[in-house]
Amino acid sequence: MMRLQKFMATAGVASRRASEKLIAEGKVNVNGRKVTEMGFQINEYKDIVHVRGKRISVNLKEAKMYYVINKPRGYLSTSKDERGRKTVLELVPKEDRLYPVGRLDQNTSGILIMTNDGDLTYGLTHPKHEVPKTYVVKVSPVPTKENISKLRSGGDIGVYKIRACEISLRTLEEENATYVVTIHEGKNRQVRNMFEYIGCEIVTLKRIAIGELSLKGLRLGKSRQLEDEEVKYLKELAEIEN
Ligand code: URA
Question: Residue 78 C-alpha to ligand 1 middle, in angstroms?
């Protein structure tokens, strides 16, 4: 799905602003019907759009799509699974040919970006950009303060070396503790490996933010398209020209 004014702008009809004006002036038809409603969503694969009586279209292979999903546990962050397990592709529109930006483990839930923009994927996952990712991790038993300080300052954790990171305590119970952890790299199973290194078992792990992009309002298993401002922000994080 795509906003009508975005479709028009992508088709090269006019800027998004000017397209909104054309819509408001009643110059745009979708499937033969005049649309004046702002923010009207169309199915860019099926709907037929006319502007001033002339059919317009976009090259859908080139149209970049950006989604954010709230991945539940149990879904794989891969495009295909030979064993028929559930993948994150089931959580976004199929036609858009999206793929995940980086990975969340099968048992990790939370925020994941899905796009067909290879440059953004490359930029966001490149270690040199140090894109911060924030997790809420519940572990058991309760670690010592010394061990948490050790993780905070980075260094060798057995499987690899990690950089310094931020860790703050969120809740403390007798048998377990929950921390908010922000890492600036994304090594395989990093948060799990960090806490396993200090002798903890991971009870739950959820990613709540990528930079300042958070899960806010997005229910588990749901997806939404990113706003233009959000895409712009992510491109800045990935150091890509807008
Ligand atoms: N760290 C992990 O251990 N798992 C994830 O899925 C993401 C970060």
Answer: 14
C-alpha span between 68 and 166 (Å, rounded): 24
Question: What distance in Å separates the CA atoms of residue 144 and residue 231, rounded to the nearest whole number?
Answer: 40
pLDDT digits (tens, 9 = 90+) for 16-51: 889 999 999 999 999 999 999 998 999 988 999 999
Q: Ligand 1, atom 3: nearest CA belongs to which residue?
A: 189
Write the pLDDT tens digit of every residue in 48-78: 999 999 999 988 777 889 999 999 999 999 8
Superfamily of domain 2-56: RNA-binding S4 domain (3.10.290.10)
**What is the C-alpha to C-alpha distance for residues 117 and 98, in angstroms, rounded to an integer?**
8
Q: What integer pLDDT is reported at residue 111 of this predicted model?
A: 98
CA distances from 159 to 110, 130, 132, 196 (A): 24, 20, 21, 11
Ligand 1 in contact with 133 (CB < 6 A)? no
Which residue is closest in CA terms to ligand 1's atom 7?
Answer: 104
Residue 108: CB within 6 Å of ligand 1? yes
User: For the structural domain made of 132-210, what CATH number should be given?
Assistant: 3.30.70.1560
105 lines ligand 1 (CB under 6 A): yes
Taking the domains of the chain in order of start, what are their residue ranges? 2-56, 66-127+216-237, 132-210
CATH 3.30.870.10 fits 66-127+216-237, yes or no: no
Give me the active site residues, please.
105
Q: What are the phi and psi torsion angles at 26 (to 5°)?
A: 80, 25
For residue 63, the CA-to-ligand 1 centroid distance in Å is: 30
Our answer on whether the CB atom of 77 is closer than 6 Å to any ligand 1 atom is no
